[in-house]
# Entry
Amino acid sequence: MRMMSGAAMVVEALKDVGVTHLFGYPGGAVLDIYDALFAQDAVKHVLVRHEQAAAHMADGYARATGKTGTVLVTSGPGATNTLTGIATAYMDSIPMVVLSGQVPSMHIGEDAFQETDMVGCSRPIVKHSFLVKKATDIPMAIAKAYYIANTGRPGPVVVDLPKDIVNVQDSHPYVFPSDVSMRSYNPTLKGHNKQIKKAVASLLKAKRPVLYVGGGAITSEASGVLTILAEILKAPVCSTLMGLGAFSSTHEQFIGMLGMHGTLEANKTMHNSDCILALGARFDDRVTNNVDKFCPHADIIHVDIDPASISKTVNAHIPVVGSVKTVIDQILEQLEAQDLTQQEEKLSDWWEQISEWRARKCLKYSQGDTVIKPQKVIEAVYEHTKGDAYISSDVGQHQMFAALYYPFAKPRRWINSGGLGTMGFGLPAAMGVQFAHPEACSVVITGDGSIQMNIQELSTCLQYNLPIKIISLNNRALGMVRQWQDMIYKGRHSHSYMDSMPDFVKLAEAYGHVGIKVDTLDQLDDAMARCFAEKERLVFMDIAVDQNEHVYPMQIKYGAMDDMRLSKTERT
Amino acid sequence: MRRIISVLMENAPGALSRIMGVFSQRGYNVDSLCVAPTSDESLSRLTIITQADNKVTEQITKQVNKLIDVLRVAELTDSAHVERELMLIKVATRTEIARAEVKRNVDIFRARILDVTSQHYTIEVTGTSDKLTAFSDVMAQSAEITESARTGVCGLSRGDRALRP
Ligand SMILES: Cc1ncc(C[n+]2csc(CCOP(=O)(O)OP(=O)(O)O)c2C)c(N)n1
# Structure
């Protein structure tokens, strides 16, 4: 049996669970762990500039790979700084483990220096948490943390480590558990056969079916079987903001994102459907609009790994608890025995109707000669990355433009804070992506407001040579707020304007990167080419875009799904 | 509607606060809470009384069930079940008549006198919540209630239905 200190056990256990990257920031309570990290290189430590960013980096890493992201921070302010990042991961069901230092056990509860009750502070935004009480419990706590974080419906787990148990002077036997089964935690993966049969019957009976795909399809790696299912059923497919890329946005059966800023065709299709197959989506209020008017004609089949998500906001007629991938496999198995040769003909009226909705071209916009429209920038990014980049987004108008104008052909390419809507997420998330995929093109779509919420990470980017491409849509305003003020508050722009913008090009240069300013349309294409030709360095593109552009389509509050504004003047 | 939610969970630190978090986050009130280890000391059994409609009850039970420390959750109210609560009540009596009245009611309610001092009786009474409230009301008529403590309801399903690990 190997003997080692608690600190060494932490590092050893991280190796044993296969952690490659650790995003962290040192401080008093974790200095012993940092000392143990010094002596090895199996776990690569990334020194961030703010702990919130560490959590977003771990999150971006997790979204891009499916693996659990790991964070290490000190007690007190180090720990509390991660809370926004933890909440972001929690809302989007992202696997993450946060190791937080804690004051020595004997001082817990004494308001000791840098003491906060991290387990208490994080309780409502974690899947689970551990306060480890003795060094010999460290391997099991860490093993369980990773098991819980990345099984069932994934989520963040906090492991709070009092300083005395990680003391480098002490020595304890190290045993990594071979099994972490827990009697109180056994996620259901397989759907109930009876429910699967009902679901299949309903899908076959349907004349106006639609597949409504959410983030669960990405989590469960269901893209392959999802495509097969959609093609067999010949049904239209729409996606939530979180599900983009699970089903290729370039597939002819794809009708776009649904919900508040969804496409007209997606929302119309949902509203008029007679059978909705929801796959790992949760009928969130940004999708349903007024639940009382939600899809009145549809039989709702709701597949989700989390029973608590089913019938939470919208009643499911056929609930199926299970992993999206496994349940689709089960549905496909049942469909094998069915004659589906008539399917295309059966749905021909439905598709004809959908074509009419599509023909309204809800994403059209008019690009003039000089002032650049934000949509145009996204299309340019798509062209210059050949649709093959990892796009991390911040929160605001630019996020919706990116979701609508950059078709994602593969899962895990669209990295955004959907549930919490955290400004400041984009840059650190893109860094996590770049650490996970050093050769890939990692792009941030951001706004002048959001980028300033974690801009200090430009320093981390230099330290680790991350050649990220930052595309900042600079509208000199908190655009999304401004849009709501235009629409709801008669154009009273209360504190949504920032008249003291920094010179972003100089800022990028000050951090040791390349900055490019783009003011007019004629400069856009060349600037993009320069940006993406720069393989070794980070490029910050500060692109002036039309300040008055709104994101459309947009659902009309209290209406049905398909009650939408299509432009400043046009409604459905 | 009054609900009895019964929970079987790991007897671990923090487990109870997570369950209470499900209630407090959503602004649901807990009317009473009764918790203790089961015959298997590694598990705790919890009985919660709350007011909720069907939809809210479904959400509560699902959200509680989702907690990692929780093994089983059941709502007892809808099916046949037994429920009991225990109250300790201390009453002050000044006159012989009052004392006699207290003792008579103790007999009627099948309560038990646990402690007697010159001025006070401490009484134990078990039953449904309604019975305890009725007893307390009756006591108030003939004596002065100095203090009382109730355990909160604990309950079990009838027959072979059970919360097992
Ligand atoms: C941390 C945080 N604070 C506030 C908000 C509310 N909010 C949503 S969008 C937005 C404006 C974003 O502005 P910007 O990043 O410039 O993007 P734009 O909408 O202009 O594209 C704000 C303030 C938020 N989502 N996150």
